[in-house]
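dumping this here so i dont lose it
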């Protein structure tokens, strides 16, 4: 036999489909809660307690809620007893009062009307995301203001906080997820769908990550940057950099970036701070295809995984100081970070062999621990 808690749980599960029926303007239909008509327990007091709990929450006792219909059923241990054979909600009011959702649904109806009046094309989204309408219950006026602005100005080319919308300056940033879903529907011809980032997707200005690099050729430093050899510029500017460079070193750690400045003069060469997996930021620097490209990372599993990632953008990349001889010379039994990567990497046979050893033993040699004399003797 169904318990009072099971009735509650099953009723909760009906809520989303009820909200969807409201959006579709379907009239409320008798809502049945399916229960088990059998009863196998042998204790009469326990039986009476369970029946009492079910009845105490019913419409008969509380004036609203579910209706019970009983039938005399012959049980295995308790002879013939009246068991609930039908549990149902007659009206929308009974259903909502039982769930305690009257006020929430009142606001939901108001929000649905507000949204569909402004943008009828969002009706299907509401049906699929009824609970998200409720989650954002206090925000819909401002969300719709944002949508209306973008509808009229699909390519603003402004920073988010510059947008001339009468909302809190941080509102869009706090509500990007739901606004993005709506704009994808409302602006199908203007969405820059190749990007996931909100700003790029909807033609907004944004604060770009900076690419930090050092110029290792003093002549280039003097001629192009008044002697400045340590720079950080936005990605978009770095991607269009036009310098007489023939060689690029990408290094994983910031300390090692400083080390590169102590190297012997390196003609037409720059060193870039890759910052681990942030090498992703370099993937559109197409001028890399016209230079010799080297990657120098930690000798650990992650170092080779980052090398593999970088090589997927630029297949001609060569590793630097990430070899077995260097590892065996300076390894100090340091432990690395376990990796769960199981896919095949873009590594040479020698790199793959060392990677497997490092991964199996969870070993690490950080590039900072390689002495400068060794770097100078073996670099490039």
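and the seq i came up w/
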């Amino acid at each position: 036999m169904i318990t009072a808690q099971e009735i509650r749980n099953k009723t909760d599960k009906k809520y989303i489909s009820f909200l969807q029926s409201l959006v579709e303007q379907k009239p409320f239909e008798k809502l049945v809660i399916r229960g088990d008509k059998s009863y196998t327990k042998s204790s009469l007091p326990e039986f009476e307690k369970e029946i009492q709990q079910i009845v105490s929450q019913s419409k008969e006792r509380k004036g609203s809620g579910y209706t019970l219909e009983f039938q005399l059923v012959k049980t295995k241990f308790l002879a013939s007893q009246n068991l609930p054979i039908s549990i149902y909600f007659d009206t929308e009011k009974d259903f909502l009062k039982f769930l305690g959702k009257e006020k929430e649904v009142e606001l939901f109806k108001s929000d649905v009307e507000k949204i569909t009046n402004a943008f009828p094309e969002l009706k299907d989204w509401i049906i699929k995301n009824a609970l998200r309408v409720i989650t954002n219950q206090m925000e819909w006026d401002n969300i719709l203001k944002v949508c209306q602005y973008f509808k009229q100005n699909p390519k603003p080319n402004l920073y988010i906080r510059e947008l001339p919308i009468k909302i809190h300056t941080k509102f869009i940033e706090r509500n990007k997820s739901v606004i993005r879903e709506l704009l994808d529907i409302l602006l199908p011809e203007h969405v820059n769908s190749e990007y996931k980032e909100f700003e790029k997707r909807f033609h907004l200005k944004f604060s770009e990550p900076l690419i930090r690099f050092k110029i290792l050729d003093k002549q280039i430093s003097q001629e192009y940057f008044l002697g400045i050899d340590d720079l950080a510029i936005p990605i978009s500017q770095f991607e269009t950099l036009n310098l007489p460079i023939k060689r690029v070193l990408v290094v994983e750690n910031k300390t090692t970036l400083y080390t590169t400045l102590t190297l012997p003069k390196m003609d037409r060469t720059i060193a870039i701070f890759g910052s681990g997996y942030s090498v992703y930021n370099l993937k559109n620097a197409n001028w890399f295809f016209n230079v010799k490209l080297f990657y120098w990372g930690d000798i650990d599993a992650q170092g080779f995984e980052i090398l593999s990632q970088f090589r997927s953008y630029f297949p001609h990349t060569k590793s630097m100081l990430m070899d077995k001889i260097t590892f065996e010379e300076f390894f100090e039994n340091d432990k690395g970070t376990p990796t769960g990567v199981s896919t095949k990497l873009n590594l040479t046979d020698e790199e793959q062999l060392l990677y497997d050893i490092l991964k199996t033993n969870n070993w690490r040699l950080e590039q900072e621990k390689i002495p400068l004399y060794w770097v100078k003797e073996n670099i490039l």
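The two ends are 78 Å apart (CA to CA).
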